[in-house]
Amino acid sequence: MVDPNPFLPVSNPGYTPLPGEANPIGSPVTRRRSICLCLAVVSGLLALDLIVVLIGYRGSDNVQVHGNESGSLAASSGQPEIVRPVSRGPVAGVSEKANGHFADVGRLRSFPWNNSMLSWQRTAFHFQPEKNWMNDPNGPLFYKGWYHFFYQYNPNGAIWGDIVWGHAVSRDLIHWLHLPLAMVPDQWYDFNGVWTGSATILPDGKIVMLYTGATNESVQVQNLAYPADPSDPLLIKWIKYSGNPVLVPPPGIHHKDFRDPTTAWLTSEGKWRIIIGSKINRTGIALVYDTKDFKTYELLDGLFHGVPGTGMWECVDFYPVSKAEDCGLDTSINGPEVKHVVKASLDDDRHDYYAIGTYHDKNSTWVPDNPEIDVGIGIRYDYGVFYASKTFYDQDKSRRILWGWIGESDSEFADVKKGWASIQSIPRTILFDNKTGTHLLQWPVQEVESLRLRSNEFDKVQVKAGSVMKLDVGSATQLDIEAEFEVDKEALDKAPESNVTFSCSSSGGSVKRGALGPFGVSVLADEALSEQTPVYFYIVKGNGGKLTTHFCTDQSRSSEATDVNKPIYGSYVPVLEGEKLSLRILVDHSIVESFAQGGRTCIASRVYPTKAIYGAARLFLFNNATDASVTASLKIWQMNSAFIRPYPSENK
Amino acid sequence: MKIFLLFLLFIFPVNAIRLTSIIRLSNLIDHTCKQTPYYELCVSTLKSNPKSADADICGLAKIIVTSLDSKASDALDQINDLLQDELTLDPATEQALGVCAERYNVILNGDIPQTMAALDTGNYKFAQKGTNDAAVEVSACEKEFTGKSKSPLYELNKEVRRISIVAAAIVKVIINS
């Protein structure tokens, strides 16, 4: 029996002495006057010993893990059973009004997810496996005519665990075909997880894959793998190097803070260089290594870069961008017209941050152009749900392409019920934004336009202040929307100046009216607008008449369900003199991917409507500003499915 | 006698080291629990598990998750007991209990194993996801019961929710440390 208050004196000495300790109580002390002092000292020591023994008491391990009626827990294996539903009566009807809160406010009923609502959520043209859990993109590459995509995958359930590398191929980054698992945890050095990694294509065309393994003792190490048969364009089988691991945590780095090696690039000395994210106390860092053969590495002195206060850097990425041309660059390129991007996924807040700067090859460091917006404290790739992202160089079309993991914002109950969790973003091309000089531009790859079916055009529609109009486009769950907005100039000039700093997340959403916003489109809305997801601009006039524009996605009324996350996402977006406000939105069931000003600011949102689904989903144009009227021109395409499916077996 | 004194003086420094390290670890429990919204619950849960004596903060998190596991199992047992009582059960309550059973199954077979695996391997954000989700599942269960009075699971739901919030808070401390 455990004594719950070990600091109180024990009435019955039913304790067990610590192993190796002699039982200090019970040794008789002879009475002699000359050793009264000794007695006092001895008693004091004994009392202290007694306290120590009591504090250090270790009874038998009486913590029981319940494993009976609730089904097998198998906590160590991390394998969840498929939940078998308890039989229950018919699903009740629609409940009370949505309150937009996540906590248990009031007595509102959480929505019973039925199969119809859940199966609607699956996307039509975003990459996802047929079922189960996915997270980070891994080792993307182009090889012998195929784009390859690998990903963190749980073959056993819709939650994270038992991680292996899934694999799929595509001719065009849109129509994917699933292949067998590329790597599973079959070695001691990746027993607890075959985690994230990157591919390097050598000048002779050979492929080298570096990835993180969580060993059987949960140490994070880096391992080397390569295709078993380079003549197989599908790269189905992979071999792990017999000398793995090739890298273990160096001195001073915690064995749980060492993961996600990058694609390698050539140094001016002809060696290959990689960086790996980590942290030292609260400073997020990138360690840098050189290698000639990917088997033995030299840890370089000093850090590649670090930023205090940012915490652990996961999935670091490093690549060049061209200032002169609108194309991607091979990872090894350097030169006067080249800037370099460093990116990190911050464990602290689960956001992806990038910074543009200058790479110094000789001393293997990188310096940001503007330290105030350094990695982790400045610009994000995406202001919604977008993490663990990774780029690769598409040597076929000379593009730098970005993949990002978009997780779920619903409950795991729903994930288990629907049998899957997570999708990937539509791959985005990355270009340096010459016009601002501070931002990257991300844009859905052009191949996504091959899914466009019929379109509806709305040219120069006047949207007066305080109005909402339905856009008749037919079905509204798979859409590609391009829109431009012009704000009435007079209203811009007359609008009052405001001291208040605006931020999408604390703005109160699209219902909060300002002089110059919000205005935009509302997607996945039902006819009565009881559920809707507005994507909009909000202009603020600051001191001196300076206009700043914000781009937001408001999920607070996206669903009547109370067990889903419904935040308001967004950010400031740079708008230059003479530019119209432009946006693009890809609506694909439970994902809404939005891009402002050609991709300067992006927002990926997950929404889970209960009513605005299937044929009941509508699209609205709105202007909730108090003063300004807006002229909108839109082109809206229906989007076909990408029919992502297993690779036809007879063709392998 | 002198030998005895020498002996005591010999073991005392050893005890002194044990004492300081034990005081430091008690301070770890105190320091950690102060960063959770339910300090008393956190401290009592940790101190009632002997493993907390020499656990690091990751170990403390696992102890809390073990307690979550135990309380969630109790809740599921209670749900099953209530479902047996067919004669006094109205359809709405029966349905709500059914959904709660499913949600508790997700906590026990999904959230908790995921959290433990994440704590073991150092991929802490998945521990954060698992513990946060446990609180979501409990809230959703409670909300299944409409009407003015509290649900028959109210006290258990409250306990499970609180302990999962404590777990999530400790995971946040680990991530931010």
UniProtKB/TrEMBL annotation, chain A:
Subcellular location: Vacuole lumen
Domain Glycosyl hydrolase family 32 C-terminal as annotated: residue spans: 447-638
Primary enzyme class: hydrolase
Annotated GO biological process: carbohydrate metabolic process
Bilayer-spanning residue ranges: 35-57
Highest taxon in the source lineage: Eukaryota
Keyword Flavoprotein: no
The protein, known as: beta-fructofuranosidase
UniProt lineage: Eukaryota, Viridiplantae, Streptophyta, Embryophyta, Tracheophyta
TrEMBL record, chain B:
Stored Gene3D superfamilies: Invertase/pectin methylesterase inhibitor family protein
Keywords, ordered alphabetically: Disulfide bond, Signal
Source domain of life: Eukaryota
A Pfam entry, by short name: PMEI
Residues in Pectinesterase inhibitor domain copies: 24-170
CDD domains (alphabetical): CIF_like
Leader sequence residues: 1-16
GO molecular function: enzyme inhibitor activity
Similarity comment: family membership: Belongs to the PMEI family.
The name this protein goes by in its record: Pectinesterase inhibitor domain-containing protein
Organism, scientific name: Rubroshorea leprosula
Phylogenetic placement of the source organism: Eukaryota, Viridiplantae, Streptophyta, Embryophyta, Tracheophyta
